């Protein structure tokens, strides 16, 4: 059907203006603004002038179509709101056909025919599923991460989606919180770089292209600091900690052009993020200059009544809108209450106009007023999903995301001639392997299991013998005997163990981070047989692995590696790929150590393992302070030697750059990649400073025996922090740099900033 372009109807007077070259009403003082911007502003002015207050409020309303369940409530009346022109966007609907049908109602059955925005949780792929975000972060490969989100955008936009609720940029230091799986881990610098890469991948370089997705930086803010790692729990922290640790990835996403932000469920220092003017207006808009729109998380406007912040839903609507929220996801309070709030003067119409305009602006930028059906192309959809090049990228990311945690006696890589026993509840799994938040990824046989990956690699003649042994959860040990039998007949045992996909992610906090069910008991029985034992883990968060680490000869963290995961695991097990991943989050020895992360303060009584005085020191009397595996840790099948760390000057002034060089040599017999990491320590300051902070990293490839000089530069800007008076700046004084293969790097140099 021929779409009557809204733009055309309202553009005529605007275009006449252009032709007459008179000044635009909206661009009085913007003589140097491009004509394109003038046209857009004038279009939006004209459109808003046509809209009733109800229609403007309608733009601020978002409901789920319920094709996926991503929250506690559903409202099946959304169709009626849509037909009444009281719905600005819909989420949890997908496919070119499905979105076309909803869009047609908006365009043809509402007074102004304003197109809908379609949102969806495209987190780590849409059909071709990449490793979970925490796994991608372990690759430290920013180009590949951008590629991953670009592929996700290509596939999602081919299915009618305009807007993804990603990237999740919450810093997380508590693996009891299941949503650590969705982010980039514990470190600010790495998370900032990854946030930028993800926004760029989703949004591309021109939102008017129909393969671009609006990004949504979430969950603003500090959701990852939920008390006790319990999802949705309160957050309380100093403004210094908020600004130093939890806000930088959001600012990075904004600087990368993130079109939207999503408010967090939690209250922060007593104020629910959804009603927090300090976060949503003072910082986001006034300090940072954000021009997109803010959507709440699922029913979080209503939840302010539960927080005990709003006396009723009407007040919640007033507080949210006045704090800076533009769109209400799923609570329907903006829909029900804003009219009256405006009539009562509690919410200004200009605030409604501002919210509606920010949303219409994004629809304009996506080209939806030109053609609201431009993302609804069934032929393109069929041609785009699962393209070979996308599957190849997913396999490359899966390979690079895996972290080799242990490899005693070089038991890996395995010889292809070995008799392999493949045991465990995730060994033949093609369901959990694509992880949580897997959008429209197929869980019915599309993903490659480890068993299939090994079969594919070794050929059908491979001497590969499988036994499940047990389930992921539960107490049933009745299949242990078959697994034991299988292991006895093999040369080497590979166990694939871990969590189910819904054991990490939203609403999946755990107080016990051991392998669930009877998987540990199964390991113990298999260990008794005395064959070389390789354990591959598929999980969405750090687990407590002291036992597994003590009995396995090799230990591989594969996360949930996605559609091509099994093929990537096979490549790693048999040496087709030499692992290069590094942990983006600390693995604790036990839950009692949590929160545990690398960039901690020294305290006044630091515990030095070999120090002269042990008792009155900051330590546990039952467990070492150190983690099982530190941030930045990851082994290779080869070995790398760091030497000749040098700096070009012992003293740096505030205008100079410090040049750092280090020599890295591949001292093993395999080519491989290494992620060279540079940490900085500010030895003293007007407030206490972390022992070390990641400030640079570079991933390099070295052939066996090859050496390379890796260079970094630092300036005083890299040394800035929130000082005692909260100004963000570097302070003169003594510093150290540490360069090496993980956050416990020992090569160091001292310099002075003055
Ligand atoms: C969920 C999540 C959020 C997601 C949204 C829409 O509750 O908190 O991350 O984007 O609802 O599905």
State the major sheet: 6 strands, mixed
> What ligands are attached or bound here?
alpha-D-glucopyranose
What's the alpha carbon Rg, rounded to whole Å? 27 Å
- The SS-based structural class is alpha/beta
CATH architect. name of the largest domain: Alpha-Beta Barrel
Strand % is 15-25%
Low-confidence stretches: 18-30
Per CATH, the class of the largest domain reads: Alpha Beta
Strand order of the largest sheet: 11-16-15-14-12-13
Please tell me the overall pLDDT: 95
Please, what is the CATH homologous superfamily of the largest domain?
Glycoside hydrolase, family 3, N-terminal domain
| Beta-strand segment tally | 26
CATH topology category name of the largest domain? TIM Barrel
The oligomeric state of the chains shown is: single chain
Distance between the termini: 70 Å
Shape: globular
Instruction: Give the total of domains.
Output: 3
Q: Portion of residues in helices?
A: 25-40%
The number of helical elements comes to 22
Q: How are the elements arranged and paired?
A:
Layout: H1 6-20, H2 35-50, H3 53-59, E1 61-64, H4 78-83, E2 89-91, H5 96-109, E3 117-120, H6 133-137, H7 142-157, E4 163-164, H8 188-203, E5 216-220, H9 239-246, H10 248-255, E6 260-263, E7 267-268, E8 271-272, H11 277-287, E9 293-295, H12 303-307, H13 313-323, E10 328-329, H14 333-343, H15 349-365, H16 378-384, H17 388-401, E11 403-407, E12 420-423, H18 450-458, E13 464-467, H19 480-488, E14 492-498, H20 519-527, E15 533-538, H21 546-551, E16 554-557, H22 565-573, E17 640-647, E18 651-652, E19 657-666, E20 672-682, E21 693-702, E22 707-715, E23 721-722, E24 728-729, E25 733-740, E26 747-753
């Amino acid at each position: 059907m021929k779409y009557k372009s809204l733009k055309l109807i309202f553009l005529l007077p605007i275009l006449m203006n252009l032709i007459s070259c008179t000044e635009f009403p909206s661009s009085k003082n913007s003589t140097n603004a491009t004509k394109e911007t003038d046209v857009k502003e004038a279009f939006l002015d004209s459109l808003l002038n046509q809209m009733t207050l109800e229609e403007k409020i309608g733009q601020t309303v978002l409901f789920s179509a319920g094709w996926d369940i991503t929250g506690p409530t559903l409202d099946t009346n959304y169709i009626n709101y849509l037909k009444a022109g009281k719905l600005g966007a819909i989420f949890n609907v997908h496919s070119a056909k499905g979105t076309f049908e909803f869009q047609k109602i908006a365009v043809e059955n509402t007074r102004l025919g304003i197109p809908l925005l379609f949102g969806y949780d495209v987190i780590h792929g849409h059909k071709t599923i990449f490793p979970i975000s925490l796994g991608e972060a372990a690759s430290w490969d920013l180009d590949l991460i951008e590629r991953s989100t670009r592929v996700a955008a290509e596939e999602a936009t081919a299915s009618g989606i305009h807007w993804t609720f990603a990237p999740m940029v919450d810093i997380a230091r508590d693996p009891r919180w299941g949503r650590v799986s969705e982010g980039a881990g514990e470190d600010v610098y790495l998370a900032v770089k990854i946030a930028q890469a993800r926004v760029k991948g989703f949004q591309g370089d021109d939102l008017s292209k129909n393969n671009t997705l609006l990004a949504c930086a979430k969950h603003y803010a500090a959701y990852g600091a939920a008390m006790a790692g319990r999802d949705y729990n309160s957050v309380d922290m100093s403004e210094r900690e908020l600004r130093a640790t939890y806000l930088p990835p959001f600012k990075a996403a904004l600087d990368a052009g993130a079109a939207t932000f999503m408010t967090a469920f939690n209250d922060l220092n007593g104020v629910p993020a959804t009603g927090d003017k300090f976060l949503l207006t003072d910082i986001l808009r006034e300090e940072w200059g954000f021009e997109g729109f803010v959507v709440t998380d699922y029913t979080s406007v209503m939840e302010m009544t539960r927080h005990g912040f709003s006396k009723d839903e009407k007040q919640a609507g007033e507080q949210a809108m006045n704090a800076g929220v533009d769109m209400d996801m799923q609570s329907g309070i903006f829909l029900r209450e804003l009219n009256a709030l405006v009539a009562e003067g509690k919410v200004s119409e200009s605030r409604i106009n501002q919210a509606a305009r920010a949303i219409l602006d994004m629809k304009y930028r996506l080209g939806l007023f030109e053609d609201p059906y431009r993302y609804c192309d069934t032929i393109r959809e069929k041609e785009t999903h699962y393209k070979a090049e996308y599957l190849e990228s997913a396999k490359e990311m899966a390979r690079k995301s895996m972290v080799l945690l242990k490899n005693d006696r070089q038991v890996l890589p395995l010889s292809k001639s070995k008799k392999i026993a493949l045991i465990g509840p995730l060994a033949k799994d093609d369901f959990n392997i694509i992880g949580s938040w897997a959008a429209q990824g197929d869980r019915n046989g599309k993903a490659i299991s480890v068993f299939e990956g090994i079969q594919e690699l070794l050929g059908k003649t491979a001497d590969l013998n499988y036994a499940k042994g047990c389930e992921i959860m539960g107490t049933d040990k009745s299949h242990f005997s078959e697994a034991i039998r299988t292991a006895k007949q093999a040369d080497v045992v590979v166990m694939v163990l871990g969590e189910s996909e819904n054991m990490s992610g939203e609403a999946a906090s755990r107080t016990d981070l051991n392998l669930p069910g009877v998987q540990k008991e199964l390991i113990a029985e298999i260990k008794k047989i005395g064959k070389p034992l390789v354990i591959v883990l598929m999980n969405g968060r750090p687990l407590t692995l002291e036992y597994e680490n003590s009995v396995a000869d090799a230990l591989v963290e594969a996360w949930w590696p996605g559609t091509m995961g099994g093929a990537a695991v096979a490549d790693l097990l048999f040496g087709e790929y030499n692992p290069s991943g590094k942990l983006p989050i600390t693995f604790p020895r036990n839950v009692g150590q949590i929160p545990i992360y690398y960039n901690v303060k020294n305290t006044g009584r630091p515990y030095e393992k070999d120090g002269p005085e042990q008792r009155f020191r900051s330590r546990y009397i039952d467990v070492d302070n150190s983690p099982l595996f530190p941030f930045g840790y990851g082994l290779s099948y080869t070995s790398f030697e760091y030497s000749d760390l040098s700096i070009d000057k012992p003293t740096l002034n505030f205008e100079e750059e410090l040049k750092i060089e280090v020599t890295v040599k591949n001292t093993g017999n395999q080519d491989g990649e290494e992620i060279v990491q540079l940490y900085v320590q500010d030895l003293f300051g007007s407030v206490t400073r972390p022992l070390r902070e990641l400030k640079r990293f570079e991933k390099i490839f070295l052939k066996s025996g090859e050496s390379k000089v890796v260079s970094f530069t630092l300036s005083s800007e890299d040394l800035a922090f929130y000082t005692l008076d909260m100004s963000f700046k570097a302070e003169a004084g003594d510093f150290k740099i540490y360069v090496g293969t993980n956050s416990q790097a020992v090569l160091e140099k001292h310099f002075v900033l003055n």
